[in-house]
Structure formats: structure tokens, C-alpha cells
Design goal:
The chain is an alpha/beta fold and 163 residues long. It contains three helices and nine strands; from the N terminus they run ββββββααβαββ. Strand 8 and strand 9 form a beta hairpin. The structure holds S-adenosylmethionine. S-adenosylmethionine (SAM) binds next to loops.
Length: 163
Amino acid sequence: MEKPILDACCGSRMFWFDKDNPDVVFMDKRDEVCTLSDGQTVIVHPNIVGDFTDMPFPDKSFKLVVFDPPHLVWAGKAANLYKRYGKLDDWQETLRKGIDECFRVLDDYGVLVFKWAETQLKLKTVLKVIGRQPLFGHKRLGTGKTVWLCFMKMPDTFGGGAS
Ligand SMILES: C[S@@+](CC[C@H](N)C(=O)[O-])C[C@H]1O[C@@H](n2cnc3c(N)ncnc32)[C@H](O)[C@@H]1O
């Protein structure tokens, strides 16, 4: 069986308990090592270098996709946050295409877990742009800025097509 899980923009895999989980395809658009201002090293070494707006996978390839795109729309290239998380250019188009690609590569009834940090853009604004309704997740921020949302690919509702 092919790997059932896709991390569509894995960065340095910080949120993974097992950073080498053999059931996961780790993808990112870069393969590089950067040094932060405090000397920490960030290693981004995906299994596949690929673009989440144009993924190199057939339709319905995965049971679970996790999508944690950059949440910054402006940042200096020397900033630690930029080095660690990157930045979105043309954020509306990029996020819309990214989410659409996540749904395309999900199998019917597959699950999408979307992570967002309300540092510069409000979740409400982002949800309006991506035009899809999460099932559940954080509805408002707690003490941090990060929210997690869960979606499911319903073949009819999301236009994924049951065939
Ligand atoms: C918020 S970080 C991911 C952090 C990661 N979840 C972790 O736990 O370390 C976002 C990542 O998206 C990547 N990225 C940005 N644009 C991309 C694109 N079009 N396709 C694939 N990856 C992209 C960046 O290189 C960056 O590593």
C-alpha cells in the first residue's frame, strides 16, 4: 500500500511526534538548512520537493492530509519566523489553490487537518477565501495564536466526485 498520509508543507516537522513516520509523505517546496539569529539550526529535508498549489500526486492518493502553510504575508528574509515558516506570496490565490489541491489528493471521506496562526491574517478572513466549511476545531483563540481545524472530503459536497 502507498503511504496513507501527506504532510503538504512539512518544514522542519516540528509538530510530529515521530519525524520519520514511515506512513507519511513529507513534502515541502524547499530542501535546505538555515541558521537562526540565536544559532539554532532549522533543517527542512522533505521526502519530496513539491508545490502544494500543484501537487505531484494523483487524485485521491491519501486518507489524511495535514496542511500547515506559512501564515505570514510580510516578513524580512532575515527574520527567524521567515526562515522557519516561510511567507505567502499572493496569499489568497496560494491558499485557495493549496486547499483545493489538498482536497483533490484526498480520498473520499478523507480528512484534512488545517493549522493556522493568526499572526497577521484573521482565521475568519482565511476561511472566507478558501470557501470551505470545517467540521470542528478552534472557534476562537485561546492564549496562543494557533488554531487547528478538521475537514472531511464528502464526495458530493466538495465536488470530489464519487467515481
Ligand atoms: C508553517 S511552515 C510548516 C511548519 C511545520 N508544520 C513544522 O511542524 O515544522 C510552512 C512551510 O510551508 C512551506 N511552503 C511554502 N510555500 C509552499 C508551497 N507552495 N508548496 C510547498 N511548501 C510550501 C515552507 O517552506 C515552510 O516550510
